[in-house]
Amino acid sequence: MLTITNSQFSSRLFVGTGKFSSAAVMKRAIIASGAQMVTVALRRVDLENPEDDIMSHIDIKKIHFLPNTSGARNATEAIRLAHLARAASGTPWLKLEVTPDPRTLLPDPVDTLKATEQLVKDGFIVLPYMNADPILALRLQDVGAAAVMPLGSPIGTNQGIQTALQVAIIIEQARVPVVVDAGIGAPSHASQAMEMGADAVLVNTAIAIADDPVRMAGAFKQAVEAGREAFEAGLGASSTTARPSSPERGRIGEQLDFIDG
Amino acid sequence: MQIFCNGRQQDIDEGVTLSQLLVGLELPADTVVAEINKKIIDRDQYETLKLNQGDQVELIRFVGGG
Asked: Which residue of B has its CA nearest to A97?
């Protein structure tokens, strides 16, 4: 069971709701994923062409809403979005994202730390999206982050856990749950993060843009469960030299040595 | 009188409430959050809050995101 602050989750797969071809596909994919936490974004209503309300497609009794502050370029904008998100959703849960550079979408560590500190004081449950920096992870925990969300690789790149060494240190040092976010492009990447001991992963693009997002959501569900099971079972040590897996003693060659015997 | 709604200039009658503005835009009040002049408005004020000349109204809602 995953516990973040006082809430418990049996699923360790968080799912993003962006980029789906339709609300119907998104809804089926969320169900197939088994996710109990989904992220949403806040945007101005397009008055010429208002889309369906996404909230009407998600069963908020079963699914925990995690609004994000995507689009915020600095701490001030993120704090404004956070308050709007809380007014709209009624939940203090927040995925804090501060991404000043639209080209890389990498998070600003300084403003992420500033905004986390302020929003925790304002009563939010803050899960900051961060670069995989172990020192920053500690600083964010110090100011009250409920979890930390280090990136595997940049948002939407499907490049997997390029930051594995740093993520491993973050996990080793963590006093709060570690949710590996961004860049997870295949179920094997999700398994890898879970085998390393991540508490959860957040996946959006890899599911949403798959040929069959509903089946891919199911594949991620299995991968996350397998990775977690492997972590809890305790992986064997790795080695750079061969170690026989069959017994060394009693080999046929020793008993029936026709050449030297 | 004129207000700015989501960056767009809009003519409305004097005394129109936020709630009436939303009805005119066919937006259910419980699906949006409104900010007027950068101040978030509580939903229970939508019925009574009258808009003023030059108000900057932002209507925001949840969309898909990661």
From this structure: B66
Give me the DSSP letters along chain A.
-EEETTEEES--EEEE-TT-S-HHHHHHHHHHHT-SEEEEEEEE--TTSPPPPGGGGS-TTTSEEEEB-TT--SHHHHHHHHHHHHHHHS--EEEE-----TTT----HHHHHHHHHHHHHTT-EEEEEE-S-HHHHHHHHHTT-SSBEEBSSSTT-----TTHHHHHHHHHH-SS-BEEES---SHHHHHHHHHTT-SEEEE-HHHHTSSSHHHHHHHHHHHHHHHHHHHHH-PPPP-SS---SS-STT-HHHH--TTT-
Mean pLDDT in residue range A203-214: 96
> What mean pLDDT is reported for chain A?
93
Structural domains of chain B in order of their starting residue, each with its CATH number: 2-60 (3.10.20.30)
**Looking at A27, A95, A114, A221, which residue is catalytic?**
A95
Span A76-104, pLDDT tens digits: 999 999 999 999 888 999 999 999 999 99
Domain boundaries, chain A: 2-237
Please give the CATH number for the structural domain made up of A2-237.
3.20.20.70
Q: How many angstroms separate the CA of residue A171 from the nearest CA in chain B?
A: 22
ipTM of this complex > 0.85? yes
C-beta atoms of A205 and B40 within 8 A: no
Contact (CB<8Å) B66/A68: yes
Catalytic residue status for A62:
no
